[in-house]
From TrEMBL, chain A:
Name of the protein: ABC transporter substrate-binding protein
Subcellular location: Periplasm
Keyword Ribonucleoprotein: no
GO terms under cellular component: ATP-binding cassette (ABC) transporter complex; outer membrane-bounded periplasmic space
TrEMBL record, chain B:
Family: Belongs to the binding-protein-dependent transport system permease family.
GO cellular component: plasma membrane
GO MF terms held by the record: dipeptide transmembrane transporter activity
Protein name in the entry: ABC transporter permease
Record-linked Pfam families: BPD_transp_1 (PF00528), BPD_transp_1_N (PF19300)
Regions annotated as coiled coil: none
Segments passing through the bilayer: 9-29, 101-123, 135-161, 181-200, 242-264, 284-306
Bilayer topology annotation: Multi-pass membrane protein
Organism: Bradyrhizobium zhanjiangense
Keywords on record: Cell membrane, Membrane, Transmembrane, Transmembrane helix, Transport
Length: 553, 317
């Protein structure tokens, strides 16, 4: 009986050992999957030029695609700067500053195996700029053209060299090119050849629709499966040209979850491993339950943009400076926003190459602010009425209503009587392009539209250059300062990167010294994730590199 | 009966045209830029004007409406501005998900509603009636999104029994009626079922009470008919009105709930509408509203016909 029992035990142990041995290799080679809850309501467009702002670039641009230039996202401490991408080097023509030569990275292939070369660059430039090109797609123009406003054309010099031409000398071009993602012409052509349509335009549209479902770029991630509005599954591109950035996890699943509480619940229940912008009031619970929180200053500004049209109260620099000195930004950060902001002292903060050395220090100094207001003729019995347009929500607007009410209270102590004109986000956005003189401004002399500060045009030029006043671009308040115009010109026409950075720093310092905006906050791109997620570097950028991210088993 | 059906169908035509006109105008008269989805923040007026012309938004409204209606009649609702995908395919996929949710919610809501309603109607003014009525009042009063979040906190976050969001497991591209998918349906379906449950309970309770107090029921009982037979008569008399109420409720559910679908990230028509509004995707918004309105109109038509089939007095009226 004892022997029989022992035999049974031995058999069981042998079975267990076999089972363990069989299971071990499976565990060792188990697929690692990173599941991310995005704030977007839909998967951003996958055909190369994403929609949904920079969240689109973050998830379906920089993952599956590369540009000629890219962003250095490897540091959490230093400002993200432009680095070589699919171009290894570039140079402006000494004789004609509108012509640039880009040397392309050899040995790069698209996910479909076709080669990346000069023809591919020309094809991708023409997809958004050349209206009679077969691959021209109007739906990609809007999200591309104005991010590289001076690019005019592309020409192949040889297989690995391409010449780009701008409408005017523009040293910002390499930075702007981070927004042009290289899609595979071969893959698109295959779809085009198979497409049905009444004419070439219809076939082209059908080809782009098919391409979006089965995309092909050169990026570190490849499209595995795509269910519109539900999920996008990406797998690692083991053959990625930058071996240091071959993804560590096998698969990344992107899930649209526009509601903050739903995202947070999905994280807490273990349904996803990573969420963007968790619900702020859930942060203590997330921390308490061991989830990791990441945040860092983003190139983003939450401002009031002043009207400078005739009769605007903001035409007096003492008033502009007083407003900037009257806001306790630390109080806003620690109180209302639970730490999820960085106080703004300009468009760029110290440490950024374009910060410069402004002499006007933006800080909380109520006494100085009150003094400036009294010098300007205002006081407790004579308040200055200012009206600001804002929205109740919107992309990048953070928490616009409570934040504006905070400003309203703060500025009241410096003799401002702030009136808020709250309108729907898209309407505010439209009004932004129309300018302070337009009836749609509704008499407001400031507007509260947040802005991205990734490149010089986005961050400075479109607001400060007099030629960018409506209807051309976003100089909403019609700033007309010859010094700004000269500095813009200088920065645009300085082609040595270090000297260009210095010129931009000069322009930024001038704008702070002029208190061009009421600078309030920078967003910090908060994200929360499971303790299983490791290797995350949250850079000072809108973007993040998913390649170094690992998942603990 | 055929004449009645034909007359009802003829009535539907002007309703459909009016619905099309209203949903076309609604999205055009609201302020804001229809190209927000594809225009970045710094887009110049020049670029905006160029794209407006490319999408046909610069043409007079009657022309836009005429072209849109003509294409719609051919089954072409245009392409989404935001995604470039055909609107009809987008809407039908979302409607499919909403129908799945509505069916599950209807099964739960109508079953519970009829059950509670009958019990409350048979036991009027007793504690049983009070409990059932309390459920009904809670059902129509409780805010959906709050209940949804509460269920998520309890069953997903705390107990970890059911998924908090989504409509299926990773790697699944279509709905199947297995547990792997059904578990995603449980919480949104319960949340969606609460209002119809409350309304059906109240309706059935009132009808049952009313019918039971009528003379013919007394006559049936006096003739010696068993309670099961009386019950059949109660059901038959209550059915047309209850059916109409349930039809309307089903119509509402097929329209999708923006709040519930957003809370659960359920990719149905409510979620789609939310995206379309958020992105100001006019073709998608118009197409979604039109399809949902048509669903509602045709569902009402079917309910009317069903009512007439059950109760011949209706078609005479």
């Amino acid at each position: 009986m004892l022997i029989k029992k022992n035999k049974t035990h031995a058999a069981l142990i042998a079975l267990l050992a076999l089972g363990t041995a069989a299971a071990c290799p499976r565990v060792a080679s188990a697929e690692t999957v990173l599941r991310i809850g995005m704030t977007a309501a839909d998967i951003p467009r996958t055909l190369g030029q994403p929609d949904q702002g920079f969240e689109g670039n973050r998830f379906t641009g920089l993952t599956m695609y590369d540009g000629l230039t890219g962003w250095d996202l490897s540091s959490a401490d230093k400002a993200s700067v432009v680095i070589p991408g699919l171009a290894t080097e570039w140079k402006v023509d000494d004789a004609d500053k509108t012509k640039w030569v880009f040397k392309l990275r050899p040995g790069v292939t698209f996910h479909d195996g076709s080669p990346f070369n000069a023809d591919a660059v020309v094809w991708n430039v023409e997809k958004v700029l050349k209206q009679d090109a077969p691959q021209f797609d109007a739906s990609q123009v809007g999200v591309t053209a104005s991010r590289m406003p001076t690019l005019a054309s592309a020409k192949k010099i040889d297989d690995m060299t391409v010449e780009l031409t701008t409408k005017e000398p523009d040293s910002f071009l390499p930075i702007n090119l981070t927004n042009l993602f290289m899609a595979s012409p071969a893959k698109w052509q295959a779809f085009y050849d198979k497409a049905e349509g009444a004419d070439a335009k219809a076939k082209s549209q059908a080809a782009w629709t098919a391409f979006a479902r089965d995309a092909s770029g050169t990026g570190p991630w490849k499209m595995a499966s795509f269910t519109p509005r539900e999920r996008l599954e990406l797998v690692k591109n083991a053959n990625y040209w930058d071996k240091a950035r071959v993804p560590k996890v096998d698969k990344m699943v992107l899930l649209p979850m526009p509601e903050a509480n739903a995202r947070t619940a999905a994280l807490l229940s273990g349904q996803v491993d990573w969420v963007e912008a968790p619900a702020p009031d859930a942060l203590p619970e997330l921390k308490q339950r061991g989830f990791k929180l990441y945040a860092n200053e983003q190139p983003h500004v939450w401002p009031w943009q002043f009207s400078r049209v005739e009769g605007s109260p903001w035409n007096d620099i003492r008033v502009r400076k007083a407003a900037n000195l009257c806001v306790d930004r630390e109080g806003l950060k620690d109180g209302l926003l639970a730490g999820l902001m960085v106080p703004a002292t300009g468009t760029f903060e110290p440490g950024h190459p374009w910060r410069g050395k402004p002499s006007f220090e933006i800080k909380y100094d109520k006494a100085a602010a009150q003094k400036l207001m009294q010098e300007a003729g205002f006081g407790p019995n004579k308040k200055l009425t200012v009206k600001t347009q804002t929205s109740a929500s919107g992309s990048g607007q953070m928490q616009p209503l409570p934040m504006n009410e905070y400003l309203q209270q703060a500025l009241a102590e410096c003799y401002f009587d702030v009136q808020l004109d709250v309108i729907e986000w898209n309407t505010l956005f439209t009004n932004w392009r129309r300018g302070a003189k337009d009836p749609s401004a509704n008499g407001a002399n400031a507007t509260n539209v947040t802005y991205a500060a990734m490149d010089p045009f986005f961050a400075l030029v479109r607001f400060l250059q007099s030629g960018m006043a409506p209807p051309v671009s976003n100089n909403w308040g019609f700033i007309n300062n010859p010094k700004f115009d000269d500095l813009v010109k200088k920065a645009r026409q300085t082609f040595d990167p270090a000297a260009r950075d210095a010129a931009l720093a000069e322009l930024h310092a001038a704008s702070v010294d002029d208190a061009a905006f009421l600078y309030v906050a920078h967003d910090v791109g908060p994200r929360a994730m499971s303790p299983k997620v490791t290797g995350v570097v949250q850079p000072k950028s809108w973007f993040i590199d998913f390649s170094p991210v690992s998942m603990k088993q | 009966m055929l004449t009645y059906i034909a007359r009802r169908i003829v009535y539907v035509v002007p309703i459909v045209i009016s619905v099309a006109l209203v949903c076309f105008l609604l999205v055009h008269i609201t302020p804001g830029d229809p190209l927000v989805a594809v225009l970045p923040a710094d887009a110049s007026q020049e670029l905006a004007a160029q794209l407006r012309a490319a999408y046909g938004f610069d043409r007079p409204l009657p022309v836009q409406f005429g072209l849109w209606l003509l294409r719609a009649l051919h089954g072409d609702l245009g392409n989404s501005i935001a995604t470039g995908r055909p609107v009809l395919a987008e809407v039908m996929r979302a409607v499919g998900n909403t129908v799945t949710l509505a069916i599950a919610a209807a099964i739960i809501g109508f079953t519970m509603g009829i059950l509670f309603g009958l019990i409350a109607g048979y036991f009027r003014e007793t504690w049983i009636d009070k409990v059932a009525t309390s459920f009904a009042i809670a059902g129509v009063s409780v805010p959906h999104y709050w209940l949804g979040m509460l269920l998520v906190i309890i069953f997903s976050v705390q107990l970890n029994w059911l998924p908090a969001v989504g409509a299926g497991p990773s790697g699944s591209n279509s709905w199947t009626w297995d547990w792997a998918h059904l578990k995603y349906l449980v919480l949104p379906a319960i949340t969606t079922s609460v209002i119809p449950m409350g309304i059906v309970t109240r309706t059935v309770r009132a009808l049952t009470g009313d019918i039971l107090s009528q003379d013919f029921v007394e006559a049936l009982r006096a003739k010696g008919l068993r309670e099961t037979g009386v019950f059949r008569h109660v059901i038959k008399n209550a059915a047309p009105t209850a059916l109409a109420v349930m039809g309307l409720q089903l119509g509402y559910m097929l329209g999708g709930s923006i709040l519930i679908e957003t809370v659960f990230s359920w990719p149905g028509s409510g979620f789609l509408l939310n995206s379309a509004i958020f992105q100001r995707d006019l073709p998608l918004l118009q197409g979604t509203i039109l399809i949902l309105a048509l669903f509602f109109v045709f569902l009402n038509l079917l309910v009317d016909i069903a009512q007439a089939a059950i109760d011949p007095r209706i078609k005479r009226g």
